[in-house]
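Obj: model holo form, ligand = pyridoxal-5'-phosphate.
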Amino acid sequence: MTQTENRPAYPTLSPAELRHPDSLKWTLYGDDVIPMWIADMDFPVAPPILAALHERLERGLGYHQLMGDGVLDSLLRAKLETHGLGDLPEGGLALLPGVVPGIYSSVAALTQPGEKVLTMTPVYHPFHLSITGQGREVSAVALLNGPDGYEIDWEGMEAAAQDTGLMLLCHPHNPTGRVWTHAELEKLRDLAVRNNLYVVSDELHADLRFTDGPFESFAADKRVQDRTITLTGPCKAFNTAGLGIGVMIGHDAELVKRVRAAAGGLMGHEGAMSVTMWQAALRDGGPWLADTVAYLRANRDFLTGYLREHLPTVRFHPVESTYLAWLDLRDCPHAADIQKFLLEEARVAVHDGPTFAPEAFKPESQGFIRLNFATSREILTEALERLRRALGESQ
Ligand SMILES: Cc1ncc(COP(=O)(O)O)c(C=O)c1O
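Output (holo structure tokens):
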């Protein structure tokens, strides 16, 4: 791993300091547990963000100026252009308090109660919760476990698409870490056009990629632009989930308005500190992000090597994006209650596989875990040693 001069390599994170009462990740489980569940990184705030937040506090905290082409608006437009989302109209961006509210309001605006919504499984759980929680039905198609990574079941998707008006896409995909390729995106676009689907593309993890070249948004092709809402935010790349903010993006300003309106006044406005944070991240956060991605990539490679050498029964594909490894422990004797077993015996907290599956698919996700490797190498190593001891003893 190459580290840029004068920037941290995050070598010395202290569990005692991380276990602050403010931290959900570090306090949900016991004091001796290493938390590798929720998608927060253990790294400190990027220095340019910290500086901007300090400076903003000096000036008071009134309503933020978000009218017209504000600073955030132009920084976002420039960034989105690199994803293939150029030429966004006026009204093509609508800020949100987070990405999840955008998923919920899209489901509310673009479907009727009782209708089916298409998604893949496993997937980030608010996808199916936003569907069932609003009286719609999940139409889930299981990803296929191919030799080189998870693959889309095209036949399954085609069949399911006939019966729905909305597809929720996770790109890059949480929890498998796939970044859908140009060829896959083309087939998904064809599917959407052929079946007249609206598409919501959650692209929150786009900046945390280990693949080469620029990121390609689902809506980077004209033929799907009028039917797509893209959602993103800074909270994964810059580790700022405690300062909720996100954006809804569309080439059809009327569609953006309609989806935003589905939440009415319930959504609230974006916090001033969140806006300041995102502006600083977009303007000055590039070097920090590059270092962080390099660190995460090295952790991913270390994890890969460790599992292959010491825990060969754990099956997985190294992720192309995100700091979340999707591990198949179905060959472990404790597969039936793997999350509980690892918590109790290894004192490592991970997310349980069935969390990421809608009801009908929960049994087949049992035995999988999602492990967050965005921590120091030292803490990651300790966690892996604990898993090895616990699993070693059980095999
Ligand atoms: C794919 C995906 N979408 C959305 C979110 C949450 O976004 P927010 O906190 O902005 O609502 C997460 C959090 O991990 C995620 O992985």
